[in-house]
Amino acid sequence: MASRAYQQWTSERAAKLDEIEASHAAFGGAARGRRFTTLQSNQSYAVTLTAQFQGFCRDLHDECADHFVLALSPEALRTTIRRLLQQGRKLDSGNPNPGNLVSDFGKFGIDFWPEVKARHKRAQTWHARLGMLTAWRNAIAHQDFTPEKLHGIDTLTLAHVKQWRKACRGLARVFDDVMREHLQTATGTAPW
After folding, report:
1. Suppose 60 and one of 5, 73, 135, 139 were both cysteines; which one would form an S-S bond, judging by CB atoms 3.0 to 4.6 Å apart?
2. In a domain, 22, yes or no
3. Rounded to whole angstroms, how far apart are CA atoms 122 and 124?
4. What are the φ/ψ torsions at residue 156 (nearest 5 degrees)?
């Protein structure tokens, strides 16, 4: 079974991303070439992908917090612990970059990236691609295309964004599995 956050990622969030990808051909045409509208479409897709992945991660974090506090006694402690788990949560104001994910999910007492990377052989590659995606999201949002910040990519293409989407898809599945197992161990009951 999967979390509600993961189910939404694979349904509603995926559908929104599919719409952006489908509109790419309408904006820029199907032929190869560097069209301005294609560049804008690629940038829109990258920003939307980042936003949808951030939403998934935040929803997963909320779901984890809900389950974690239910295992606590006395009941009066639950509200305080839930606030602490969400206090200063990076996903509320920052990108879902690798460092912010460690900060937020680490509050559950998990060594987040080592657990994720141990779970799937491609997780190291996905980790790097997530870093590239969030770097590009920031470049687009702040209109600062400093080459050193963009991991050697000087032009954003549809292929880049599709590659990043595959990485997010893989990471979402692994995050869901890793957090389920961690919470089951920590609380004695499966969260989903």
Report:
1. 5
2. no
3. 6
4. -80, 125
50-55 CB contacts, 8 Å cutoff, 24+ apart: 50/95, 50/96, 50/133, 50/134, 50/137, 52/9, 52/13, 52/16, 52/17, 53/96, 53/130, 53/133, 53/168, 53/171, 53/172, 54/91, 54/95, 54/96, 55/13
The predicted-structure confidence for 12-30, as pLDDT tens digits, reads as follows: 999 999 999 888 767 655 5
How long, in residues, is the chain? 192
**Three-class SS state of 91:** helix
The count of structural domains within the chain is 1
Residue span of the structural domain in which 52 resides: 4-12+38-187
Q: What is the pTM of this model?
A: 0.93
Helix axes 158-187, 14-28, angle to 10 degrees: 170
Q: What are phi and psi of 72, to 5 degrees?
A: -90, 150
User: What tens digit of pLDDT does each residue of 107-119 get?
Assistant: 999 999 999 999 9
